[in-house]
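Friendly challenge for the regulars: who can give me the structure tokens for this chain first? No prize, just bragging rights.
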Amino acid sequence: MHQILEVTSGKKSSASDLTPLIESDPALTARILSVANSSYLGFTKKVSTISHAVVVLGFQEIQNLALSMSVIQLFNRRGSDFTEKLWRHSFSVAVGSRMLASYLNLKTDGKYFVGGLLHDVGKIFLCQYLPEKFSEMLTLLDRQDFRITYHALEERFFGIAHAEVGGRLLESWMFPRDIIDAVAWHHEPHRALSDPALAACVHLADILCTIRGMSPLGDRYFLPMDKKILPLMYDLKENFGTEGLIALMGQLDLEIDRQNALLSAFRW
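First reply, four minutes later:
Bragging rights claimed.
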């Protein structure tokens, strides 16, 4: 993890720096090749080496994959029903973000998948490293007579939102600025300066997945759409509207099932 961060954070880093580092880790190599050969990317010829993957996917794509897989390994996914559901939600938002990018006629590179996958990394951090306090918060949230959203309760318990925690973590790990902003502002994408379209895709995918019931928190998790992104949406797609999003929501389950093979590459 630290070696990958050191290499990828260098302004002059290149494929020749990153490739041997990935190849020295058999597990990471296998995961990246699994993604490169998945139907998700749609290449017809088998990608058998990291060098080939760099040529096919590009240095930035490989860098994002290596970084996200390395980050995920820092967390212990196994455990409670909540963490299992949170993992499924994160993967679903990753798939949904890429779907939305395609719907909005954006170049569907890997940053949409990575931004979606890591959007709740701050929540994972709070859950794993402050487990007693987090468990107390969830217990209070589950009380039928307790009428408050998860987000408001999170601020009350920790004094900080999971989106801000996630943004700070990715910044400390020297992720690309567009992915940092997408994570930090996934509930307020209009505030993302580097790539508001990426943040908007993650935001909308998060909402669609929650509406579909793909959330560990049910309706207590729900936040409304950030309406300040609408001018950007109309710039990207003139006929952007509810009907298109509903159609996408109908495709989401099928796409997630189709990409299930990717789960093994990213599970932590």
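The chain has a mean pLDDT of 84. Residues 76-261 form a domain with the Hypothetical protein af1432 fold (CATH 1.10.3210.10). Your move, everyone else.
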